[in-house]
Amino acid sequence: MTKEQGKVGVAATIPILGKVIGAKTLEEVKTGRSVVGKEEPAVVTKPLSPPKPR
Amino acid sequence: MKTARLATLLAAAAIALLIHSPPAWSADPAKPESGQVNLTYEAGNAVGRLYTPVKVITEGRPLMIQGAKGKVSMGGEDVFVAARRAGADDFIGLDADGSGSIDQREWFVVKGRPITVDLKLPSGSSGKRDYSVTLIARVYLSGTTIVAIAGKYHVNCCRKGAINGTVIRIIDDNMDGRITQDGADAIAIGDSPVAVPLQAVHQVGGKFYKLQVAEDGSSLTAAPLSDVKLGAVETPFKTAALKCLVLTGKEGSFDVVTGGKLGIPAGEYRLAYGMLASGQEMLPIVPTQSALSYPIEADKLNVIRIGAPLKVDFMAGIAETGITVSPPLQVLGAGGEQYAADWTNRATQPHVLLMNGDRVLSDTPMSYG
Q1: Would you call A9 and B312 a contact, using CB atoms and an 8 Å cutoff?
Q2: Domain locations in chain B?
Q3: Who wins on pLDDT, B6 or B238?
Q4: Mean pLDDT value across residues B192-199
Q5: Other residues' Cβ atoms within 10 Å of the Cβ of residue A35
Q6: How far is CA A19 from CA B234, B240, B359, in A?
Q7: A22-26, B71-75, B171-175: lowest mean pLDDT where?
Q8: Which pTM does this prediction carry?
């Protein structure tokens, strides 16, 4: 098991939403830094009504 | 001659305008007018049933007294609070009438249930004003000596009025005795059980109004706004358990579960709070320092990032004896919001996992110590 593959996690069951898991790689645990993935935008906008067919 | 008559008419019209008192609310809901609303005191279930930001986010203000007596700020005044033990029962007393002492009828037995107390707080030079609080507190003993009174308390009263026929309730949510429109206090509109942070602009009866509330909560003025640029708001939640999701910003505060489809004024918002509820179970959604800011665009459907995927955030370290996982545990959503689960219930006790990739190698109930 490598540092990249090895993880420590916590699983919790919360009301209404059920089971939730969080995990950190051993590298993240060792350095205390999280690997940040690609951030999605806070808001995705869409047109209010679908475009009319041509 | 014509000029003189016109001047007379204009003068008469000006006098008529001057002596005209603030207009009453129009009988025609389609033609709302600006107007002043007198607000009256209300306490009891109509207020107690409301979600408010303070009740949801922190379950009230902390009540902490070292020893058997002390003072607690309620409605902007220090109220004398004390505890005593009689037989097997603990009692908490409040100087509810401001007499300077706690009378026999001002003592309440502590049995883990909320205690609601109606207060008479000082007002002006010699007057009194009504105020009501609900507290859940415990008396802590060392042997037979009371060492502390601790718990939480929140406001249980409001100032009530109606704007164009729709009931509104203004709540001194931060319990400082003043009504401010900076989000520290709250407003509940119509039959909704959701009180939102009180700002300048609110949607009342399907229309947007700019409100100006007197600091003492005695009255407000409301001016309808026209040409408000609205953006529709949608959340990714697919569950009917989402009872409210309140966004707040300079443009106002709005519950997007009930008002998101109709739209809210365009602008920058952040999460005030939310609530998931199913049967007897409730799960508050509360903002964190890392919660997102949502720029809402006009004339668009704005899908905000919140909810799934959820993750458990925790502290972990590598020690000589192995890996340690330590509280606080937080369940966080995609918008940085927190799902405030009660970890004290053993049925929801978290488990620690050791994993290789996505494969779980060990799964152990979390133990403390």
Answers
A1: yes
A2: 45-155, 311-365
A3: B238
A4: 97
A5: 10
A6: 24, 18, 16
A7: A22-26
A8: 0.86
